[in-house]
Design a protein that fits this description.
mainly alpha; 3 helices; 0% strand; signal
Length: 68
């Protein structure tokens, strides 16, 4: 009986972790990302690059996470 409880709890924890992980990493849909990005019809102009450099901060960078 204890074995069944332990296996059931392990399965629930595994599934819960998988669902929580997919919710963390899959927050934005691809369409939302495309709509949030500035429309790039052609090449970047020097004015656009200057604006990007002026508004860039070190907090814009998010380090990639390595799976444990």
């Amino acid at each position: 009986m204890k074995t069944r409880i332990a296996i059931g709890a392990a399965l629930l924890l595994t599934l819960g972790t998988a669902v929580a992980g997919s919710m963390l990493y899959g927050q934005a849909s691809a369409q939302a990302v495309v709509e949030a990005a500035p429309a790039m019809q052609g090449e970047a102009t020097p004015e656009m690059i200057a604006m990007w450099k002026a508004t860039a901060t070190s907090t814009d960078y998010i380090a990639p996470r390595v799976p444990l």
